[in-house]
Amino acid sequence: MGRWPIDREATRIFAAGVLMGVATLFLFPLLALGQAEGEQGLLETLPANPTPVVSQTAQADQTWDNRQKVRVLVGEGKVEEMTMADYLWRVVAAEMPASFEPQALRAQAVCARTYSLWKMGANAHKDQEADICADSGCCQAYIDPQKAKENWNDNAQSYTEKITQAVSDTAGQVMTYDGKPIQAVFFSSSTASTEDAQAVWGNSLPYLVSVSSPEGEEVPNYYSTVTLTREEVEKKVKEAYPDADLSGDPAGWLSGMTLTASGRVGSMKVGGVELSGGAVRTLFGLRSACFQVTYQENKFTFSVTGYGHGVGMSQYGANAMAAQGSSWQDILTHYYTGVTLEAKS
After folding, report:
1. Which of the listed residues 172, 176, 201, 288 has the most CB atoms within 10 Å of its CB?
2. Contacts for 151-154 with beta carbons within 8 Å, 24 or more apart?
3. How does pLDDT run across 181-217, given as a tens digit for each residue?
């Protein structure tokens, strides 16, 4: 009398619970020790998430960039096949400073992808059994990842991830005009306006026309000077243009300068031979075709603004736009008139 009835089933469950608790107290340190030493077999028997999921890596592997193969001519007779994603990483790392704004790097990735498709369609390297080459004078600049990391020193990890993200975030994105990839040319730094393709190459393209370009204060060597002696100029001109007349006062050797709407040299007579501003730039090793020239004390002095041919996207202009809050889409549709952004799938 006065005692609670004994519930034998409850007693059995309680005892089992106590035994499990004691076992857990002894087992937990062993689990922790196994994890610390890299042996995760016991932990892996209990899945953290019983629902199957697709990892970010697996998702990335399914993108067009990772399915599309590119044959790159990396040296004399040497062709390497890689994914478009891997190729674009090497191009963006070589073409644009990794310190640039993320949105500028994204814009560069889309330019590089689009230009690659345009170049591949031209079959320029068919004879070498390649799609594109690693020569910036022919196709696009290119750098091996290990070399890039050596150049970046302490910033290697962050810059590597930054460029990887720029390529990944724009996966498959290309610029088209009338349904075809455009000739997405770009250059380093501009004057207040980019140049019309017609003025540089004599070929008019509706998406490569002059537009405004904000150039930041950080542009290195935005203003540069090239000084050549009379003898140096004479040698360069005669080697390239044997029919040029360099008699008389050297002050008259370079004359008849005309300017384009963007302020670059459209044409100039060199020893009586009429050359485009781009040809003069190449002849005398100038950073751009936006220059003035003076002759004094037996020397020609070229005062130059900007760097590059001036057509398409200015990289420093893109960075300035990104710093002001523009997206990569804003940057591209500004520099390439009337283009459509499409995703390869």
Report:
1. 288
2. 152/98
3. 999 999 999 999 999 999 999 999 999 999 999 987 7
